[in-house]
Automatic annotation (TrEMBL):
The protein, known as: Transcription factor MYB21
SUPFAM superfamilies in alphabetical order: Homeodomain-like
Localization: Nucleus
Gene Ontology MF terms: DNA-binding transcription factor activity; sequence-specific DNA binding
SMART domains: SANT
Gene Ontology CC entries for this record: nucleus
Length: 86
């Protein structure tokens, strides 16, 4: 599991240097993690505009409608739910 110290290092590094080039982020920030792990931690948990908590009824309805249209193409469906992850 990620520690609070690791979360702080990652958040600080991204605040100063921006997102992207995740392998470089892992090495340059002092984290002993793989780039993919840093990317997933940021995108799924730490990024400020991520919405945590239950889906709203409107979001649930939208997901059902989009699932009928595109099936299990969750990355495509996630594009219509800003702040939610796939």
């Amino acid at each position: 599991p990620w520690t609070l110290e690791e979360d702080t290092l990652l958040t600080s590094y991204i605040a100063n240097n921006g997102e992207g080039r995740w392998n470089l982020v892992a090495k340059s920030s002092g984290l002993k993690r793989k780039g993919k792990s840093c990317r997933l931690r940021w995108l799924n948990y730490l990024k400020p505009d991520i919405k945590h908590g239950n889906l709203t009824p409107q979001e649930q309805l939208l997901i059902l409608e989009l699932h009928c249209k595109w099936g299990n193409r969750w990355s495509k469906i996630a594009q219509y739910l800003p702040g939610r992850t796939d």
